[in-house]
Write a structure and sequence with these properties.
- The protein has one domain: Non-ribosomal Peptide Synthetase Peptidyl Carrier Protein, Chain A (Orthogonal Bundle).
- The protein is mainly alpha-helical and 81 residues long.
Length: 81
């Protein structure tokens, strides 16, 4: 796990989506209504801009955006790939 990516993702989520509480790294973002489908595309833009990582359409799934840890794994895997 890359703690820097996780922290940056959480800061982006808090800044852009203003959840009532700061989500934990394993908080269910979709289930708790912190993010929705539009937010996923905003996150994809953030990831592309800040990490130079292109997220393929087949990687846009509930599982990959369910938690901050899941998003971090997606980014880390794409950077290696």
């Amino acid at each position: 796990m890359n703690p820097d990516i996780r922290v940056a993702l959480r800061e982006f989520i808090v800044r852009e989506f203003k959840p009532p509480v700061v989500p934990g790294f394993d908080s269910p973002l979709l289930e708790q209504g912190i993010i929705d489908s539009l937010a996923i595309f905003m996150l994809i833009g953030f990831i592309d801009e800040h990490y130079g990582v292109h997220i393929d359409s087949e990687d846009v799934s509930i599982e990959n955006f369910e938690t901050i840890n899941a998003i971090e794994r997606l980014v880390t895997g794409a950077r290696r790939g």
